[in-house]
Amino acid sequence: MKDKRRVNRDLPKINERIRFPNIRVISGDGEQLGIMTPAEALAVAEEEDLDLVLVSETAKPPVCRIMDYGKYKFEQEKRAREAKKKQHNADLKEVKMRYKIEEHDYQVRVNNAQRFLKAGDKVKATITFRGREIQHSNLAQKLLDRMAKDLEEVGEIQQRPKREGRNMMMILAPKKSS
């Protein structure tokens, strides 16, 4: 079981936890107050009813800033949430068909692929061969090339059409918006 008094190593050191002989202190409004002992800096911070937060431990001497630690921590968490919201993991969606596909069915596959690409996902277009159909891989190649041409405004080919066993596949990635 974890000890409740154990300090979280990810959080910066604050107030009495700062143990250096001398530190460089920066005020809340960004003004340098100079080099002083942690006790003196803590007294200045308490006068302003703020916290002393270690900003850079590796600097000589270490740099501390006088700020409201609760507000600082909240801002950091808010920034992390925003960054996580903006991050999108691209999934690989698959669109399966046969080389003898009817026009309407083909359009449905293209529309699905278009929707996936617009959502920021990659699309794997797969054509499956059965029995002797594998002799017609040139028709499947033409179909995949046609699909790539139909989707060129929203996606770009990441992997050219190639045959793997009884399948022919190609991978499309969303176009980089510039």
Q: Overview of this structure, please?
A:
- By secondary structure, the protein is an alpha/beta fold.
- The chain folds into two domains: 69 residues, Translation initiation factor 3 (IF-3), N-terminal domain (Ubiquitin-like (UB roll)), CATH 3.10.20; 83 residues, Translation Initiation Factor IF3, CATH 3.30.110.10.
- Helices cover 33% and strands 29% of the residues.
- The protein is built from four helices and eight strands.
- It has a four-stranded mixed sheet. A four-stranded mixed sheet has the order 5-6-8-7, with helices on one face.
- A hairpin with a 2-residue loop joins strand 7 and strand 8.
- The longest helix has 18 residues.
- The mean pLDDT is 88.
Which labels suit this protein?
single chain, 178 residues, alpha/beta, Ubiquitin-like (UB roll), Translation Initiation Factor IF3, 2 domains, four-stranded mixed β-sheet, 4 helices, rod-shaped
Brief digest:
By secondary structure, this protein is of the alpha/beta class.
Query: How are the strands of the largest sheet arranged?
Result: 2-1-4-3
The main pleated sheet reads as: 4 strands, mixed
CATH level 4 superfamily of the largest domain: Translation initiation factor 3 (IF-3), C-terminal domain
How far is the first residue's CA from the last residue's CA? 52 Å
**Gross morphology:** rod-shaped
Beta fraction: 25-35%
String of helices and strands: EEHEEHEHEHEE
How many distinct helices?
4
User: What is the count of β-strands?
Assistant: 8
Q: Return the structural class.
A: alpha/beta
CATH topology of the largest domain: Translation Initiation Factor IF3
Radius of gyration: 30 Å
The amount of helix comes to 25-40%
Unreliable sequence segments = none
CATH architecture of the largest domain: 2-Layer Sandwich
Number of separate domains: 2
